[in-house]
Amino acid sequence: MQRVRQKNTSAESILRRELYARGVRYRIHVPVLTKPRRVADIAFCGPRVAVFVDGCFWHGCPLHATWPKMNAEFWRAKILANMERDRDTNKRLQADGWRVVRVWAHEPPERAAVRIAKIVEKRKARNRT
Question: Which of 3.40.50.720, 3.90.1150.10, 3.40.430.10, 3.40.960.10 would CATH assign to domain 10-43+54-124?
């Protein structure tokens, strides 16, 4: 598991390229909560939008997740704990005024970038008024 990337995954990098190509500027790997520590993959600090790019296996994608047969108990507990942590993160950030966007690794990056750009622009417009 040490070799599994946590930062700069291919899905995350492609999404960032799509956002940049659309003129949407962002920060990466931003700590958005301190205790417990949570780090957004992509963040828009002004409009308070936190983007998390979730891998299908690690976060229990409803379309693509599989339950390993080897060491099944360990993996089931790990994936369920990841899912619970994601829900907790969403709840805490929303309570703090953040808009949380979760993007599955299998989601087309162009579509995700458009969705994120719309959310960011809407929040920026709301802050201007």
Answer: 3.40.960.10
